[in-house]
Give the backbone structure.
Amino acid sequence: MTVYVPRHFSAEDPATLRAFVEANAFGMLVTHQDGETMVSHIPFVVDSDGAGALVLHGHVARANPHWKTLEASRPLVIFSGPHGYISPTWYEKHPSVPTWNYTVVHAHGAARLVDAAALERTLGRLSAHYESGNPEPWRMESLDRDYTDTMMRAIVGFEIAVDRLEGKFKLSQNRIPADQRRVISALESRGESALAAMMRKACFPDGAETP
């Protein structure tokens, strides 16, 4: 399984792709087995193995049969970032048509199920990461051990050793600089600053955005 990526929308720098995955770590887990496609939407912990290769840690409900397909298939995880509608009225060059700018990274690899100790470590890292901004962060250690064990029996942990990343950042790179500037300005005026920032980085990497 692959994704269509025109040359001007291709993102290939490993550090850029990893940073994108870390910043957008709620992913779509996809497997295909025996003619059936299964999809789960889950948060991931992003890590590296001893050689620096990307590893994704996640979990699903035990009642979700998706986990039974992981080791026998080759999972794909889709990470989506900022996206938005682009109006042709924003362009200087005409005629033009509407389009959609978006950012996405596809991670491919082999999965394996993990034991209870590894699953608990993943849960602890996951909650610590997303609780870090709270004035009084919740901690797994605050739970009664019996309750924790009961809840953990209801889920299945896994990890995916990523061996291929595909990035597609469709950010008006195929438009003239004047159009790119106008789109960035329009997005910022609509409050879509994250998409505008990614456009600015893709279209004007040297910072020369002004004519």
In short: The longest strand covers residues 155-170. The two ends are 41 Å apart (CA to CA). The chain has one domain: 7-85+98-174.
